Amino acid sequence: MLQIFSWVCGQNAGHTWSPGGELLPMCQRCTGLYVGAALALVLLLVFRPRLNGRYRWIHVALVLGMIPFGFHLVPQGPVLRTVSGHYFSFGVIGLLWLLPGLKYSAPAGPAAGRGRLHVLLGVASVVLLPAIACWGGTPTALLLPWIGLTGLVAFAGLLLANIAIFCSWILSRLHARTERAPS
Hints:
The protein has 183 residues and is an all-alpha fold.
């Protein structure tokens, strides 16, 4: 699994969690990024929040919030690197889910309660992930890379879905243009 993450992570040993004394195959920010992506996708599928304007702007803000951290404008330690990656992944997964207009039926029950629980679990995960990565034992060191790999696959799958939908949209526009063009 180490080789898979070497394609997408710098694997700086000084910036890597070591639960149970075992170095994870991804740095602290990538731990937040990929584990967060897996969790963000699960929360989307389970709670199915309303994909409205507020949803869009919250996720844009989560993505833009990475700017001071990604450009190292703010001093960062292990927890802040993990948390910034985690929030960024929630923003990106949310926007990648939104862009292709993926449709799903809302579950039964009050929408406000669903949305609040979705947000509450997302915020709780930001606190729990660094704690688990810091104080977890060997099982944590074995589990987090697999969850991270799931998040990496989620990113790749949603990105490919967006690219396919965009290409289909372009082709349909070109096809419509050629049908209207005079001979």
